[in-house]
Design goal:
By secondary structure, this protein is an alpha+beta fold. It contains 7 helices and 10 strands. Strand 3 and strand 4 form a beta hairpin.
């Protein structure tokens, strides 16, 4: 019995002595690859920051971490091969692969949002402070993360839009050019001089503070309605926030209304006419009706 124990102990010591060089070599390889991975991470961060000065999501750290993990994992695999543990590790990875497939199906939406967040960071279709409309939600961008874009709507609510929606549909960035076009529609009565209406409307648009004269103004009569000559007025205003857009529309409406009253131009509305033998009827608000007794 004692002889057997002694024999086992000697074999154990011999195996340990045989594996010490392999263990030392494996540790050296791991340390070496860790240093290389660290250097590659720093180089990656420096190159990215020189190429892209603006960064929203600290994407350079994520890319650098991927390079670090790649180099370090290579070192670990070599070390396991030296120690003869690569085959058990491969079986472990095979089992982990099955789990990974299941997790992939469960987390596919999160992965899609993260990839979309990466595209947002690379393409930069909008930035914090821009006024956008995404998935029918209109407001100013407060934050851009990997998974969602946070928007503050005009009524004051915070809305979190999943990033994958941005690339699954269309969205609008109203802040791209620093200006926005206003389209105002109205109509005047049949009795008004259309050339005079056009001249007055164009003159009043030029008076507002927000108007951008270099963009010009478009005025078109668009239809002959049931009681109106309909027109469309298009002009550009500076745009830094939604208030600029609202003020640009508000001021023109107030100016045109006041000027039309001064020029005896009627902003038409649906009316009822009565035919007293006059061709086409008589507008009760345009002429006095004389009734014979």
């Amino acid at each position: 019995m004692v002889d057997n124990i002694t024999q086992i102990w000697k074999e154990f010591q011999q195996n340990v002595l045989e594996h010490i060089p392999k263990v030392v070599l494996a540790l050296i390889i791991i340390i070496l690859f860790a240093l290389v991975a660290s250097g590659a991470k720093k180089i990656c961060i420096n190159v990215y920051r020189k190429a892209f000065k603006e960064n929203y999501l600290n994407i350079e750290r994520i890319i650098a971490s991927l390079f670090y993990a790649l180099f370090f994992a290579t070192g670990v695999l070599l070390a396991l091969h030296i120690l003869g543990l690569d085959k058990p590790f491969e079986k472990l990875l095979a089992g982990a692969g099955v789990v990974g497939i299941i997790a992939g199906f469960a987390l596919k939406d999160i992965a899609s949002n993260m990839f979309s967040g990466l595209l947002v960071d690379l393409q930069r279709p909008y930035k914090v402070g821009d006024w956008v409309e995404i998935d029918g939600k209109y407001g100013v961008v407060l934050d851009i993360s990997w998974l969602t874009t946070k928007i503050k709507t005009v009524p004051g609510q915070e809305v979190f839009v999943p990033n994958q929606i941005i690339y699954n549909g269309t969205f609008t960035n109203y802040s791209t050019w620093g200006k926005r076009r206003i389209i105002l529609r109205s109509g005047v009565s049949y009795g008004d001089d259309l050339e005079h209406v056009r001249s007055v409307a164009l003159d009043e648009v030029k008076k507002i503070e927000e108007y951008l004269p270099e963009e010009g103004i478009d005025f078109y009569f668009t239809d002959i309605g049931g009681s109106t000559y309909d027109f469309m007025l298009r002009y550009w205003v500076k745009f830094e926030s939604n208030d600029d857009f609202c003020k640009g529309m508000n001021d023109v409406i107030m100016h045109i209304k006041k000027r039309f009253e001064q020029e005896n131009i009627s902003i038409a509305y649906p009316v009822t006419t009565l035919d007293f033998g006059v061709k086409g009827g008589v507008n009760l608000f345009d002429k006095n009706i004389k009734v014979q007794k």
